[in-house]
Amino acid sequence: MPQRAVTAETSLARPEWTRARRVVVKIGSALLADRETGTLKREWLASLVADVAELVRQGKQVVLVSSGSIALGRHKLGLPTGPLELEQSQAAAAVGQISLAHAYQELAATSGLTVAQILLTLGDTEQRQRYLNARHTIETLIELKAIPVVNENDTVATAEIKYGDNDRLSARVAGMVSADCLVLLSDVDGLYTAPPNEDARAQHIPLVTEITSEIEAMAGDAGTELSKGGMKTKIEAGRIALGAGTNMVIATGKVLHPLRAISEGGKVTWFLAKQDPLTAKKRWIAGQLEPRGTLYVDTGAEKALAGGKSLLAAGVTRVEGTFERGDAVIIRARDGRELGRGLSAYARGEAERILGRKSSEIADILGFEGGPELIHRNDMALHRK
Ligand code: GLU
Questions:
Q1: What is the pLDDT of residues 243-288, one digit of tens each?
Q2: First vs last Cα of the chain: how many Å apart?
Q3: By CB neighbour count within 10 A (0-12 exposed, 13-18 middle, 19+ buried), where does 362 fall?
Q4: Is 152 exposed, middle or buried, given 0-12, 13-18 or 19+ CB atoms closer than 10 A?
Q5: Under 8 Å CB-to-CB from 95, ≥6 apart: which residues?
Q6: Ligand 1 center from residue 69 Cα (angstroms)
Q7: Which of 70, 89, 227, 231 for a ligand 1 pocket mutation test, highest count of atoms within 8 Å of Cβ?
Q8: Any atom of ligand 1 within 6 Å of the Cβ of 228
């Protein structure tokens, strides 16, 4: 029977964990499915869900990224052990995902939580419009106090359009929802100077502040048969997370109550981001994206933006360029001064039809409910005066 990693007396959690408001937790297949029988490890999952409920009570928002569909489904279909053909893993995922979702639903209900299934493919995080749509749905679920349980849509994913591992998928999801913290629950308790199963002198590294080539070299490749990602994909996940301003922690899931163990200062590896998610996102908008168009705003909107408000259609006087929903655009004052940049919530054609109009008129004009902001303040980087 697994033991708790540490007791409360030994140490305390890092402030990055205590302060984190939005947390993404990735759960690997090996933790969820028994290697021999392919059955769900119920007691373990119940302890994890109880931890999630506790974090929610503390005011945190939790998104789960759970593997396990293939591991659970393959046994039900009587597929052989060892690597599967693509069609076999797609079929296994189709069967296993139902059991997985059902288990989460049942266990969450005992803690009074509602779970929601989200199946993503690579394009949902890479293509701007689909990214915005997926983000919007996850945000809405969080607002409604449901716990999104995300997995890759393995049943339709083929080799070219596949993540393949949930380490990187979870890092993309963390970036997508601007999470403060990503937890990778794994069968190891963190990063070692060398793979610990191969090198007895390997030393545990408690803290990483930058992913250097030295850190990458330490990862080796420790994939197990059930879970795709080894330490290598975890380091890649770290690169994505840190770039998005999300702190990441690799912790063992081989104990009951693995999240409580983090709260109690258990042995883990922390990867600390240099900036918070909002700053990281604003830098990305200001510096990395090629603007596709321009929105000219009136003096009222200019004042509102300076006061930290979103850009509403009512304050826009003119639109230039060819852009889709989610593309970066330049915001200019009437006299042409560049005020900042942001991600447009509407395509050019739509923006043109609603400019100067009141928020309450938008749905009638466009025929759908798209929200009052042309650019949300969180999707905007203004130049300092
Ligand atoms: N999405 C796969 C599954 O649910 C797992 C991928 C991984 O192990 O990272 O079975």
A1: 999 999 999 999 999 999 999 999 999 999 999 999 988 888 888 7
A2: 61
A3: buried
A4: buried
A5: 72, 73, 76, 77
A6: 7
A7: 70
A8: yes
Q: In this predicted model, what pLDDT tens digit does every residue of 29-63 receive, in sequence order?
A: 999 999 888 899 999 999 999 999 999 999 999 99
Pick the CATH number of 289-382 from 3.40.50.300, 2.30.130.10, 3.40.640.10, 2.60.40.790: 2.30.130.10
With tokens 């007895």, the residue in question is 200
Domain boundaries, the chain: 6-277, 289-382
Rounded distance, CA 236 to CA 75, Å?
Answer: 30
Q: Say what the pTM is.
A: 0.87
User: Domain 6-277 classified CATH 3.40.1160.10?
Assistant: yes
* Ligand 1 contact via 97 beta carbon (within 6 Å): no
User: Is 29 touching ligand 1 by the criterion CB < 6 Å?
Assistant: yes
